[in-house]
Amino acid sequence: MSFTYDPTLADEVSQVRFYLDDTIEDFADFQDEEIQYLLDNNRNIFYAAAEAAFRLYTSYSKRATISEVDDVRVEWRSKSAEMKALYESLKKKAKDTATDKSKKAPIFFGGLNKDTFDANRSDDSLTPRDFTKGTPRFNNRFPETTDLDSEFKMWNTAWSSDYYDIP
Known about the structure:
The chain is 50% helix and 5% strand. By secondary structure, it is mostly helical.
């Protein structure tokens, strides 16, 4: 079992130790081999540090609430809560870092705001899509310009007695 910590944070083990504040050998929570295992099985150092913080959280939460020896008193509940907060913080940072490194364009839904949509709708110089050709166009701003007779004819044709037996 070994312990190493480089204050220049040149290696990943030292970086994980830095985020866990596990930098003093006499009070170390993890050995280098354990941290290296977490690094090997996680995507980046933040995920590895978050996993280690979660391990400390579960370890502290299993202990008795308060330990008292002579005049020294340790409240493990507060240590457990601190490790849970650290875990959540590191997990968020890991997700943010993974998103930044992916360099993927964000998903974009939509494309037109309402004003542009209305302007395009009232512009007769634009060619309508093939699936809309031949259908009546209702103009919300000028409803009186819509040919309701053509809409009625379309409706009447679709529901005529030629298609259904209507008594």
